[in-house]
Structure formats: C-alpha cells, structure tokens
Amino acid sequence: MNAGDRRGLWLALAFISPWIVGFGVFTLYPVVTSLYYSFCDYDVLSRPIWVGALNYRDMVSDHVFWQSLGNTLVFTVISLPLGLGMALALALLLNQPVRGRGVFRAIYYLPSLVPAVASATLWLWILNGRHGLLNLALMKIGIAHPPQWLVDPQWTKPALALMATWGCGNTVVILLASLQGVPRALLEAAMIDGASPWRRLWHVTLPAISPVIYFNLIIGIIGSLQTFVSAFVMLNGGGPDRSALFYAVYLYQNAFEYRQMGYACAMAWVLFLLTLALTWLAARTSRGFVHYQAD
Amino acid sequence: MLSSPLRFLRLRIWLLALAVAAVPRVSGASAASGRVVVDYWEKWTGFEAAAMQSVIDDFNRAQDRIEVRMLSVSPIDVKLLLAASSGHPPDLAGLWSFSLPDFAEKGALTPLDEALAGEKLGADHYVPVFWELCRHRGFTWGLPTTPGCVALFYNKKLFREAGLDPERPPRTFAELEAMSRRLTRVELPRAGHRVRIGFDELTPAERSEGRFTIVQVGHLPQDAGMFVSAWGLWFGARYYDGDRRILADDAGNLAAYRWMHDIVETYGLDHLRDFASSYGQSQTSQSPFLAGTEAMIVQGPWLKNFMEKYAPDLEWGVAACPAAPGVGGGHPVTLVESDVVVIPRGAAHPREAFEFIRYLQRQDVAEKLATGQRKFTALRDVSAGFVAGHPNPAIGFFVQLARSPAARAVPRLSIWREYDMEMSIAAERVRGLLRSPESALAEVQQRVQWRYDRVMRRWDIVRDERLAEWREHERW
Amino acid sequence: MRTLARISLHVVLLAGAAVFLLPLLWMLSTALKPAEQTTSVPPRWLPLRYFAGEGAGRREVVPGAWVTAPSVWAVPDGATAPVALPEGDVRDGVWTPAGGRRVSVRVEYHAAATPESPWREIADARTGRRELVSADSITSRFSPRWENFAGAIDAMQHFWRYLGNTVLLCVLNVAGTVLSSALAAYGFARLEWRGRDRVFAVLLATMMVPFPVVMVPLYALFRELGWVGTLRPLWVGAFCAGAFNVFLLRQFFRTIPKELSEAARIDGCGEFRIFWQIILPLCRPALIVVALFTFLGTWNDFLGPLIYLTDQRDFTLALALQSMQAKSGLTDWHHLMAASTLVILPTIALFFAAQRHFVEGIAVTGGKS
C-alpha cells in the first residue's frame, strides 16, 4: 500500500468508526460470548459453570422446547401466506385506477403503524370471548358459539395470525410501489398479444414483482420466527396448554424467569442456525420463480 | 491543526459524553436533609401500598437518621433478581415467602440471623407456621409483613334462594359437593319459554341434548386463593419428599385433579367454558363470585376489599374449606403464605434497612399495617382491640385459622414457581379434558424433576461457597 | 375500465378499509364509555348516559338486569337489598322458591313486565339506590366520557414521566442513528479503500443475526457496567451505526454523482466538509426516512425496556402500557383502551404529518434490495 492508499484507509476507518465499535461491542463480542454461554450453566448472579453440551442435550429431550418451536412454525405457516396474500390482493386492487388511492393506502397502512404493545392490548379486548368485537360480529352473522379465541388451545394461533394480518399494511405499500414500477412496455406488449387480465397478472405482473415478494417472504419468515411482543403481552405464560408459547417467549422465560441463561443462549443459537437454513432454502427455491430484470 | 476526520471524531466523542452526562441517573444517595435513604421496593399498589406508606411515614417522622422510600415495582421477583445481579439492589424488598428458597440459594439475599440474635426477635415472637416460612437451610431470610391464609367464602343470598341454610356452610367435603350441585342453576328453553332451574332438575334427555346455559355455579375450583396447585393440600398431597424427589403425581394431587376432572365431566366442558368466558381473574369485578353468579369461592381475607369495591351488597359468610376425609386430623386445613421483607445482598445500607424491619415487628405497627391492608399479623400476640376494630368482620376467624395445626404452606423449593406453573398447565389440560389427570401429572412429575435435578446439580457445585458466604456475615 | 367493475372495485376497497379501521374505532368507542357499558348486553357503539323519571324526579341511573315476566320487587328476610322475584312464587309476603324453603319477604311493589314490555333494574348513579322500572321510562343520550383519559393517566400513575422518558429516548436514538449511520454509509459509499466491499459484506451478514443471540451477553455486559436499571442501554447503541440504516443510506449516497465530490476535492475541501456540506444536504429525504423509522422503532420498543429497566419511574410508554394491562386483571377496559389510544396517537399524528416520507421510505426499503 502506498502512502495515498494508507491515508485513504485511515480516512475511511475514521468515518466507519461508529460501525466498527458497534460491530465489535454489539455484534462480535456478544455472538462469540453467547456461544460460550450456551455450553455453560449460567444463572445471572454468579459465574458461568462449564457443562459441555448439556444444554443442547437437554433441549432435545425438553418437549416444551419442541412445542415452542412447533408453535412458532405453525404460526409462521398460517400467518405468512395470509398476510402476504392479503397484502398482494390489496396492492393489486389499489394498483387499478382508483379514486382516493392515497386515502385507502393510508387507512390500510395505519394498523401497521400502531405500537405493538397497544395493538396487542387492543386485540386482547377484540378477542374477548363474550364482549369482544370479533365474537360480537360472528354472533351477529349467525354463529351461535364462536371460538373462545384466547382460552381455547386450538384457536390461539389463528387468533394471533389474524392480528398479524391486520398489520400487513406496510407490505401493501411496498408491493404497491413495486407494482407501479412494472414497465408499461411489458404490459402493453401482453395486451397487444391478446392476453386476458388474468394472464397478464400471472405471466407479466407477478414475475415482474417477484423479487420484492421474495424479499418480503424472507423478511417475513425471519421476523415471524422471532415473534415476541404479541404472544408475550396477550398470552403471557404461553396461553392455554402452552398453545401460543412461541420460541422467542420461551427463550425469554428461560433467560429471565428461570434464570437459565446458558440454556437460553443455546436456544438462541439454534434459532440463528434455523434462520440461516431457512434463508438458504428460500434462496435456492427462489431460482424457480424469482425473475430479476436485466438492468 | 487536526485533519478533518479527526476533528470530527473529537466532535462526536464530545457529543457522546454530553449525552451520557445529560441523562440523569436514579441514585440512592443521601437526601438533602442528611438522612440515610433506604430504598424499599414493594409489589403493592393501591390501598395496600397506601397502608405501608402510612407506616413508613410514621417511621420517618419518629426519628431523623433514616428515610425510607418505597417504590412500587412489578413483577417484583424478576426485577429484584435482576437488580441484585446488577450489583445495585434496593436496601429492602418485599417478596413472597415462596420466593425465599430460590433467592437465598442464588445468593441474592442477606441472612438476618446475626442481626436478629442481637434483638429479642425469634421463633417465639411469631405464629410458628409463619416463622418457618422465613427460614431455609438453617438461616433466616426475611421477616413477615402481612401473612395470609385461605378459607371458603360463600354467598348467603344464593344459599337462601337454593333452599339452604345461609348460616350453615359445608363442613365436610361431601357436603361441599352436594351443596355446590344444588347451587348450580341453568337456563334453558322449555315449552316455548326460557326457564331457570337447578342443574339437578334437568331431565336426562335435556342434559344429554345440552341446550342449557349455566347461569350460576355452586363452586368451581379456581386457584385456591393463591395457587391452583394448592388444592392438593385439601387432599393430603405432599408435593416433595423432603430429600430430592418431587411428588407431583402422589395420591393427594391425583385425587385433587380427578375431582377437577369430574366437575368438568359433570357439567360439560362447553357449558363451563361459556360460563367462564367473560370472567377474568378471581380478584376482579368480573369474578363470578363478586358478580353473584358463583356461590362459593376459596380466597383469603383480602377478598373483603374487592367485595367492598365491586360488590358492596353481597351478603357473605366464611368458613374453613372442608378437606377430603382423613386429611387434617380433625383440624381445619388451610394454605398459608406471607409477604416478607428482605435485605438483598449488596444493599448499600443494610443496617438502616434492618432498623426499619425491626420497626415493622412492633405489635402496634404490625397491627396498623395489617388493619390498613385488611389482613392479620404474623405475631403470636394479638392485642385486644385488633379484631374488634378491624374493618373485616371475619378477621378473628382468619387469625384462628392460621393457628390451626393443619395449616400448611407450599413446599419450600427453589423451583416452586416453575413447579406451580407446570401444575397450573396440567390443571388447564385436565379441566379442558385434553389429558387424563394421571397423564397430566405424570408429565409434571417428569418435567419438574428434570428441572429440579438441574438446579440441584448447580447447587451441589456452589453449596460450599454459598454456605461460607452466609456464615461470615459481619455486616451487623 | 368498465363501470360495473369500477364500482365493485371501490365497494370492495371500501369494505376492506372499514374492516381495517373497525378495531381502531372500537378502541375509541370503548375508551369513551363508562366501565359498565363496555360489557353491556346488547353491545353498542356509542357511549350513553341513562336517565329515569321526569321533571324534578329525573335522575341519572345505571341500568342492570332485565325482567321479562310479571314480578315483585321485594326484600327477603335477612337481606339488605331488594330483588326481583317471579310474581307466581310470592304469596302473602312469603316467597317459595322452586324446590326451596319458604322465606318471608317485604313486597315493595309489583312489576307487570312482559317480554314485549320489559322492566329493568336500575341503580341511581349518585346514591346507588336500586329500583325496578319499566324499560320504556329509561331515556338516554349520547355522552362520551372524556374523563376516561384522565382516569387512564391516573391509573398509569406516572404517565407524564413515561412520556418524557420515551421522547428523550426517541430524540437520543434519532440523533445518534442519523449521525452515525450517515458517517458509516459515507465511508462505504463515497470513499475508495482496500477491503471496502469485503467489510461491507460482513456488515450485511450481521443483519442476519437475530436479537436473541446477542441478548444475554449484552445484558451481562451492561450488568458489568452497572447500566442495568438505567436508560443507557436503550440509546447508547444508536450511536454505533446499525447495519440496516447504513445499508439504506449507502444506497442513497451512491446515487449522487461522483463528479460532485471530485470537484470539491479538487477545490481543496477536506473529506469531512464534503460529507457535511455537500452530500448530506442532498440526502435529506433519506435522512428523514431514517429519522422517522428510528423514532417509530424507539416509540414502539418493548423488549429493550422490558429487560433493562427496573425502576417503574424510568419506564417508557410501551412498557408502562403493558404493565398496566398486566396489573389490571383485564377489567378496566375503558381505561386500557384510553391508555392505548394515548400511546397510539403520536404515531398516527406523525404519520399524517410526514406521510409522503413514510410511503417513500417504506417503498424504498422494501422494494430495492
């Protein structure tokens, strides 16, 4: 490196110094330390005691761990397609010549703006078995015994998924923006070829926005695996029969309520690896349906 | 002249320092008056906090060296442990006695034995069962502030309406079940009108058809005043063999859970769920007992306060909750528990904190606090005017009940919280007819034993350190 | 587009909008009702105030149970308050409940109630005295209970402190994030240096690390520093340039032509001046987006305050709301909804004030990856 290069490097490091500090202190150090803790028995008051792979072995035989993982995956499988599908449908509708598009977009976006804690508190009230808005509406349309959403183990996850779908507004905005970026030339060519609106949608529009859909799917999976606030606020101990005990909540419980911080770190690493695996999987399968436009 | 990036770096560091300095730190330093400030974290809010605050004000006025400042913290056990671990705990904290084994074994508390030895305070000052609640592994970890025990409250008006003598609550378990059955009423369509009848008046056809709605229940086992897992006590459960073996599925617990299961089978899961669907927890205005739709409930003396607030017209009576045959040896069975005050390890002013604890043990002070919180005291002596002047007309009954030889507490285990949680989940499963009592409790047994073994493994490693720490307390 | 299709499109969108808005409207409706009306049967949208009687006898009442069969209003022996009893069960001052023992009662009056013209139990709002009156004689008028907001603030105890804490954290986080992210992004976007792209790849990789992985060691670290129980863990990190914002701003910085910087360098400008006086002002929209989302993120943050704050007076609004909900035992819905409304209001206000930036910002973050 010559003197000019060295000076350039020094300058650049000065600029990115905040990130370097952050990386060292808030990312690298914790990631390495949490790996170490995951092999220890660490209650927060005294020193970590090395126990080898005990935490991981215990995890395998801990059926609450598997239950929390299962709950989270089931929740993801329900809420993600629902949310993404709803957002896509709304975006497609809003992409038509609509009067007051800005107003509609604002209304659909508003719920995703609501602070998660307030939203959870509100939905606690909406999902109330006897006096909640949802069941009152269901009874009005003739369903005499609507589900006891937060009391019946079978309905807690759908209830949380419903609440998550209510907040799909920011995905609507993203998809709408990308829909409006679809090149008109392609659509016009399809129209000239005599393609019906449905075929245009399927063969031109959707492929054109597929990178955005894919990106939101990934973000959605990663976020959904870490769902914490709604489950914690609404169904604090995991809900009836632990049906809504999500992975992140069980992790928090292990760390701060049972004071098994080593076990919690082991759970965190499993989550990390799972996230990486799912992302890689999504990346591989995306080759089948994601079409990047030539820039 | 520094080059621009370095100059900017300096600017950033300066900004950061300014920001750090600008954010005030909540400190427990000395008050302006020169008094030592004792920080006291309590779980109470509302009138319970007000009662303690009044006692604190008396203390602060009565001397000029110490000022106690109470803070309402929730959830107290989680926050206290985190504070103790951070090295900046409060000087005093209010816990529940069932938390003491856990906190003590984690080294979060200061043992009080040496300080107590210097005073007249010891076992004979207290009702034995409450003194025992404060001890663990041979050391004393706190002193009681306001104890509690539970009994069966019943609604006299509903008794009267069902044709039962309102002055004759159930005395045996069989009577409890029979009366509960009689007090359960349903509403259903009959010959075109909606009528309200007793549950037993349903014809077998109507019962199996299931078109009725439960509008009133006699007794539904909720949380036995504090823990749903405590129902085992009335069935003779032991929970723990005293050594290292958890007994979640012993005969007593099985009997209790079978009882809960039978109730759900009798009345029907959907009907009970429908009935319970809009009720919150038992101490609120939506509690079925307070709403007048449940005739009997097991609760502590504090229920009186909720009745004052939410159901002032309720005509109530109270009696010891009957136990299963053979349990209790002829004495009334009750669950006892107590709020205790502790000095966390690492507290800045333990001496001053202890002075306040000592103040709380004075008979007049303890009785003032108990009266304000509508409870009774843990002290062996009860002054003449205490019962007479107490806002809760049944307090004399509770005072006697706590002295029953069959009064028991939950097991003194450091993992009690988890044990109770697993038992609650098992109770939910049994009441939801998702599992049989046997299989639900077997699962609890396996899981809690596993947890306990883990905790004991760690305890074995740190025990000697811990005991040494506890013995060498020279703070006094 | 054909008219029918257009109309049905608008109808569908309107219906959808109504469904999305309904929860928020329900929240507001509950927030303005008195406690007993939140669980009234049948449910209503509008908060009402009930009155019975005419002229001088008109008084505010709280209605209760319905009575749809001929009944008497009587006080049973030994009871303190009157109850409604079926007329057929009471003869000559003696009540014989079905299947029960007889009780003597003092009859106050009769009520000729039928399912078509029912009567209702009412309680005087001031004195609490209970009566049975014909349902027709009860009138009502719309009356939103704005005092619920004051009640909610009371119930939360230190509302203004919570607000102050939250605003303080937002300001610190916004300042720190914008500043540090812009600096770092500049270093990755506008400067050429060895290893830049490799380091940037590392930065991208850090975005994959889920928070739970770092949660425990960070907590232990802050514990060592003695910062647990203070607000510091919640804003110090903002000054360390989070990966996402650096990534976002880097994209923006790259869109500015290189010639601008070149020209300035030739003129003898130091790199920092180029950053501060040329590039940054050009990226105001992007900076505003970062500021907006940081503000929102901090306003909404729950897990951070949950694990780091112990003293209730240091709580943020989000944590205080959850704490209030946990303690309330789920009864005071009117106060809970009022408190939720207060917590939501600033975010909605912010949205309407900066709508354009929001939409642009979201579109960019989600669209170009």
Question: Would you write up a description of this structure?
Answer:
The complex is a heterotrimer of chains A (295), B (476) and C (369). Chain A is 72% helix and 1% strand. With 295 residues, chain A is mainly α. In chain A, strands 1-2 form a two-stranded antiparallel ribbon. In chain B, strands 1, 2, 3, 6, 15 and 16 form a six-stranded mixed beta sheet that branches. A three-stranded antiparallel beta sheet of chain B has the order 13-7-14. Chain B has a three-stranded antiparallel beta sheet with strand order 9-8-10. In chain B, helix 2 runs antiparallel to helix 14 and helix 17 runs antiparallel to helix 18. In chain B, 47% of the residues are buried. Among the domains of chain C are: 44 residues, no CATH class; 172 residues, Orthogonal Bundle (MetI-like fold), CATH 1.10.3720. The longest helix of chain C has 31 residues. Chain C is elongated. The two termini of chain C are 33 Å apart. Chains in contact: A-B, A-C, B-C. The interface between A and C is large, with 97 and 93 residues.
Question: What key phrases describe this protein's structure?
Answer:
heterotrimer; B: 476 residues; alpha+beta; D-Maltodextrin-Binding Protein, domain 2; six-stranded mixed β-sheet; three-stranded antiparallel β-sheet; 43% helix; 16% strand; globular; C: 369 residues; five-stranded antiparallel β-sheet; 55% helix; elongated
Topology:
The complex is a heterotrimer of chains A (295), B (476) and C (369).
Chain A: H1 3-37, E1 40-41, E2 49-50, H2 54-61, H3 63-94, H4 101-113, H5 116-126, H6 133-140, H7 156-166, H8 169-179, H9 184-192, H10 197-225, H11 229-234, H12 247-257, H13 261-289
Antiparallel strand pairs in A: 1-2
Helix pairs in contact in A: 1-13, 3-7, 3-8, 3-10, 3-12, 4-8, 8-10, 9-10, 10-13, 12-13
Chain B: H1 4-22, E1 36-42, H2 46-62, E2 66-72, H3 76-86, E3 92-96, H4 100-105, H5 113-118, H6 128-133, E4 135-136, E5 139-140, E6 143-149, E7 151-155, H7 156-161, H8 173-182, E8 185-190, E9 193-198, H9 204-209, E10 213-216, E11 239-240, E12 246-247, H10 251-267, H11 269-276, E13 296-299, H12 303-310, E14 316-319, E15 334-342, H13 350-360, H14 363-372, H15 384-388, H16 395-402, E16 407-408, H17 416-431, H18 437-471
Parallel strand pairs in B: 1-2, 1-3, 15-16
Antiparallel strand pairs in B: 3-15, 4-5, 6-15, 7-13, 7-14, 8-9, 8-10, 11-12
Chain C: H1 3-31, H2 35-38, E1 48-52, E2 59-67, E3 71-76, E4 83-86, E5 90-91, E6 94-95, E7 103-111, E8 119-124, E9 130-134, E10 138-142, H3 147-156, H4 159-189, H5 196-206, H6 211-225, H7 243-254, H8 258-266, H9 271-282, H10 284-300, H11 303-308, H12 317-328, H13 333-353, H14 355-367
Helix pairs in contact in C: 1-13, 3-13, 4-7, 4-10, 8-9, 10-14, 12-13
